[in-house]
What we know:
Elements lengths: L3 E2 L3 E6 L2 E6 L5 E5 H13 L3 H10 L4 H17 L3 E2 L1
Antiparallel strand pairs: 1-5, 2-3, 3-4
Amino acid sequence: MTYSLASHIMITETEHGMVLLDENNGRYWQMNGTGATVLRRILEEGNAESVITDLRERHPAAAERIEADVTALVTALLNARVLSS
């Protein structure tokens, strides 16, 4: 599945990750460095599958939980209408 950032979401990079702001309702989310990296990669590549594959190769000790963690992040961002598919 291909994902993109919703048009009403603004991203601000921070020292330790990023902050996402929904310009429609003022709601915001603070993402740590790992979450920010995953989101950047998904937006660059358009999908989560390649990010999951790359993270599994880079971090084999965590390979079993990477897919679940990335999927949970994407699901939360879709539910919050931060990402669109």
